[in-house]
Input
Amino acid sequence: MSAAENAEPLNLDWLDRQGEWGSDANPGKQGLTLDDIQIGTYGEVPDESDNMTGRPRGAMARAEAYRIGGYSVRSKQEIWLDNASFLYEEALQRQWSSATDVPWDSIEPLPDDIEQAECELATFLTEVEFVAGDVPSRWVAQMTPDYFEPRNVLLAQVMDEARHMDVFRKRALANGGGLMSATGGTAGVVGSIDLSRDFTEMSSRLHISGEGAVLTIFRMGELMAYNEAEKAMYRLCAQDEARHVAFGVMHMRYMAETAPERREEIECYLDEAERQILAGSQNPAGAQTESSQSLAILLGGGIDQYDEGIRKLMAIRRRQLTEYQKRVRSSGFGERFDNGRSPIHEMIAANAA
Amino acid sequence: MARKSKKQAEPANAQPIPKPNFGWMGRSNQWGTRVKPGKHGLRLGDLNVGIYGEIPEQWQDQTRNPRGAIPRKGVPPVGYPVRDKADLWADSAADLYEEAIQRRWAPATDIPWKSIKPLNEVSERAVCQVMTELSQYANCDIETISNWQHQMAYGYHEVKQYLATASFDSARMYEAFRKRALCNGGGLGLEAPGYVNRMILESRGGWSEAVTYLLLMRGTFMQTMLRYLEKYAHNEAERAIYGFALEAKARQMSYGLEHLQYSLAHDEERRSVMETLLFIGDRVWARELKDHVLREALAIVFAGGLDKAASEGMQIHKAMMTDCMQSYVDTCAWLGLPRNLEMMPPRITQYLVAARG
Amino acid sequence: MAKFPSVAWFDAVRRVYNADDAYRGAGGGQCNCLMGLKVGRERYLVTFEGEAVTGSWQCSNSELLDADFYLEMPLSVWREMLNNIAENGRATLNYTLNTLDLDREEGLSTSMHGDQYREDLFFRYNQTLQFFFNASARVKTVY
Output
């Protein structure tokens, strides 16, 4: 019998069980972006998600599907930011390779004190990026795919942080040095990023406070670079970090606009962040730690110019705190700087000339 | 060489600078390491020299101490439950990480979306149904990998870094499949049955157990499907989507199968556990294969429309399933887990028996 | 040959930048921002849209409010930077945008609107901005 004669009839009932039909997204000047496919019901992001089966947003549900999701993040307010699609597409477009986009050949031997400072800083930055890779990953696993846009941005962040871990390890081992002492500054203590039980809590600590501080360190790295490789490495890391900070600012802005009932709670997160992360050991431009000493040696140009380096560090720390303040204002929580709640003014004054 | 930083003026009321303790200086487990870039740049695997390349069978450190750095005493643990090498290792992880970065793709601009022309409605519905199910598989990849990656200790950073690329690739796949469903007058279809997804997500025993279901089982199926879809693509855009997805999936499979091979070679208990998992998994998979939706959608795609879907389309689908199941049992045999066809569900063995004539 | 600053100069640089695919990789890529420049008494706006720099024009001081960020230095420092780029094919250690921003007390990048989210685009797109100015190495610049 031929194939046609052997053929069993098809059921085809699924042809009538599909989502909204007629979606015709067209690519724009920047290709076919996630924004371009936010059409009809596919662009409707529910305030609360009842998608517990992991189906793509807008797909037709099966009545018999198991609720396998177990998602703890199921409301838009917990996770959303208005430009998630844009940040994700930007992340995709601006990826780089530490193996080939950093001119490693440009590194030449440095004085021992400088090389040690570079390696200690690289060791610290590797630790810091470990946090920033682990924590978003944990949250991604808990999110309903109805909010895949911010989820994809976090996946891009996990990718970026993997690349940062890699590039700092490479720098530590590329010029006659090695890894040095771990700082322990990212340990699981109360108030740390790891222990956040709420996404907004985590984002305020990780993206706005933590990554904002690290962005400044990367920019300092570019400033104090001793060769083209370090220049490129720090500049490219800073780009990625600025994108992560942007996620945090935009999420907080969304919360400020849509969740007034959580305002005081978020203010408490910022209180804690300002006490711990900006002042403590997780910010090497803060207290006197191995990493802040390393920065000072690098900024000064050597251990014998340590004091000069510290002065530069203090100046940059002021800028770091000022930028943090402006980011929080941009997020819609600037009142804390005007009503005396935030100690930022005192921190800036303490670091003033 | 060293750039001169611009001197900061000494301010009049400057606070005294505390005398630093440079106790950290001169402390390194291995100083004097100078890794040079090779033909392909400075790659992650190149860094494994001396102690930096010593990868122990178990990583006791529960903090974020980078491998080879001097640990700090008194640091509270973060907690990394996956800390045995046999539970996650693959020698190729570092190379796969670098490969994923070099072969990165952006669906928005690397897919020639304008090559898509209208299809007849049934064909479009079939493509959209396939895209919907593939999206759901990609979602399962994302959730599974992300759930396990952060639990892995930093003694095996190569694996964590590779998995970061793997989950990012799955995000790209999720995005590309969704874009295809929404760019040609169609929409999303019916969600997948989810039995295998549930089994993958519920692999709480360990990462190796999750890899068995996610990659050995589901991965083989998805990879075979993508190969056939690429062959029967309607346009350059679909060909590119499937092509990029295949590359990413191939990397995931390389990692997964190499890990399982390593795991089986280094953990005596693993073999019997995996045999049990495969026994259970086959039955869940067979149950999912009973669902007609994806099968019919694929038949329509392969046949180029409804007319010959029941005949030629289904023949091609059968060939695809035969390839898939053969690959699956061959891989199991390669891993040292030969399958007894008499113990496998008929819905799976029907393809193997047919192939053997 | 083009005089800096002038629309002709920015157009010449953007032609070089737009034509070279190398500027799209290595951490460059799609960039979407409106960059302003203050050079002496002159003000300019340059549009980055996707993979291309799509336009540049002279503007008033108040129009700089539209810029996501603007770069301000005395003409003498702009000349030093551009001469460094012309001599070396790219900015070297002391003349990258980020270095100039941090090394100078008054900084380089700022805004009239004060929104740090938008000012942060200077960091998010820093490699692209650097590539743009590096492209001036292939433009004969006069002052």
Q: What stands out?
A: The domain at 91-355 of chain B is CATH 1.10.620.20 (Ribonucleotide Reductase, subunit A).
